[in-house]
Amino acid sequence: MLYLELLIQGIIYGSMYAIIAVGLTLVYGLLRILHVAHAGLFALGGYLGLLITNATGSLLLAMPLAAAGVGLVGMVVYRLCYHPILDRPPYVALIASIGLFIAMEEIYRLVFGPYGLTYNDVPLQSQIAFLGMNLRTAELAIVFGSVILLGTLSYLAQKTRIGVAWKATVDDPQMAASFGIDPLKVRYLNFFIGSGLAAIGGIFISLLSNLVEPTMGGVPSYKALAIIVLGGLGNVTGTLIASLVLGVVEAFGTIYIGHLMDRDAIAFAFLILVLMIRPQGMLSGR
Amino acid sequence: MLKKRIFMVMVIGLAVLITYAPLMAAETIKIGFHAPLTGFAASDGKSASEGAKLAAEQINAKGGVNGKMIELVIYDDQAKPAQAIPIANKLIGQDKVAIGVSGSYSGATRSAAGVFQEAKIPYISAYAIHPDITRAGDYVFRTSFLGEVQGRGGAKLVGDTLGKKRVVMITLQNDFGKSLAAGFKSAADKFGITITNEYQYSMKDRQFGSIVAKVKSDNPEAIYASGYYFTAGPLVKQLRAAGVSVPIIGQEGYDSQKFIEIAGDAAEGVIITTSLDRDSDVPETKDFIAAFEKKAGFKADMVAASGHTAIMVAAEALKKANSTDPRAIRDAVAETDLKVSTGTIKFNKLGEVLKAVQNQIVKGGNWHRHSVIDDPELLAPPAE
Lengths: 286, 384
Known about the structure:
The complex is a heterodimer of chains A (286) and B (384). Helix content of chain A is 74%, strand content 3%. Chain A has 286 residues and is mainly alpha-helical. Chain A has a two-stranded antiparallel ribbon. Chain B has a 7-stranded mixed β-sheet with strand order 7-6-8-9-10-13-14, sandwiched between helices. Chain B has a 5-stranded parallel β-sheet with strand order 2-1-3-4-5, sandwiched between helices. In chain B, strands 11-12 form a two-stranded antiparallel ribbon. Chain B is of the alpha/beta class and 384 residues long. Chain B has helices at 2-25, 42-61, 81-93, 106-119, 147-161, 175-188, 209-218, 229-241, 257-263, 283-296, 302-321, 326-334, and strands at 28-35, 69-76, 99-102, 123-125, 140-142, 166-172, 194-201, 222-225, 248-251, 271-274, 338-340, 343-345, 357-363, 366-373. The longest helix of chain B is centred in the first third of the chain and has 24 residues, at 2-25. Chain B has 2 domains: 7-145 and 281-353, Response regulator (Rossmann fold, 3-Layer(aba) Sandwich); 147-274 and 358-373, Response regulator (Rossmann fold, 3-Layer(aba) Sandwich), CATH 3.40.50.2300.
């Protein structure tokens, strides 16, 4: 019984990680950039979602608006921060990204205050009895929301023209360009979708904790990196599997080895363990 | 040409500043203050510095200290030990403060305390709880409880006042949480408490799903959980959402209106050990609560009251010493006997304070008095 409950908590953690890490792995797959500022966009999603929900009373309205807004900001981040330095070595973009992330945290602090924001009335808090457990609607929404969003994304990537173009560009940018695919368009789309998903992740997390704070991107900023490494850099399926596995490992780990190491330490110990056995990650990249 | 002119103006400006700065400075007495104004602890830094500024304003409105205005020199230490050391050196060497006050966490305060002790400039920790801070030496004082002392108070509250014996602990893994847990455990036997399990979490955790599931299956009579409002708010909310209905006992880290805002209805009935009594009849406390809300625009919390307290103690010592000699100021601090918002401040030989623990409970969305623990033997701080 307890094990089942921990497993479900692990799947909830994993769903949150998945929706954040997918955007990061998309950027890495396309541009070979470790996009740390992704976590800053995740926090921005939390802020926009909360502010719109508080203003309109509708989470259903806030989700797409926040996702679209943050998606646009993601495109701007690409244009202003990464586009001018694409020809530099990858660490240049990494340093720029870390700098941008720190700046974003401090901007949130200045604009929204250091204390964090809370919902006037937190949505999706009704409880559902499930096999003797009390789950919150928000927890179910996180799991099913992630499955639906990521499923839709995968469908679009397989079945639409732009999806195929995107996959082609990831596989071989020069070849794709010679077939008339505009790489810039693909990159913008990439940042729009990845950042939008991060925004949804930010809203999901705020529903559980009822707290959106300037530093809420702190943990995702490095844990999402661990996840995409675990999944085999740039491999979307691997990232999803790694997210779920890590979520479950953390859920059990915090209870049974929590007195030895904290949650982050468990995650990184697991990462090291996996990399010792499979240096290419759980599923290898290309 | 233009550049040269600007340069000349700057040089002249600098020369004027250097010549007259000591004259200007002579009209004020400087109190050094460092707090985390940015970074993860920025909210506590804001409360602490607003409390400190309020104290300085109140003192200056009453004519300052021996005819001189006091001036706060405030730096941002981001709650980082590595930032606190250069800041302490700057406060002592460059700003020439008469006394230093920490509005920061234990890590930063421990580092700065060593520097102040070395320079033999008096230093007061407003709310950092690590035992080693005052052990830096005889120039270092603390106006708040030690973590261990408050943990022992928590054990009395749980085992004696509430009569709950089977307890699960949820401990924040840092100086604050660990010393509270140590204090609670050391007094648990005395009050017949059995600790059935203890879980640890880190400062960055906001999602407690798995700990909540395990606590539920442990089925304790009460939960003793350490944390700050930004970890405790989500924790309490998630415990209650999962159907855990036993009493939750916290401590001064919860002590903020923000905790109630985050946890919402789940906060009702949570009891904490702290040092600010909202329902106090003591004029110093009542006046502080009213004045703080008016100045800062948000409700007073433990950290704000502690920042205010430490500056009041510093100013009183400067007044009594009536001298710029650090030794005289230090001796005046040691002899403090002052009624302030958090109680009556008197120091023991180690520079620790002995005062009653104020237990507060959340009722109707606000903190209110639950009970007071005034047991000098249980709450005695170490003397060496």
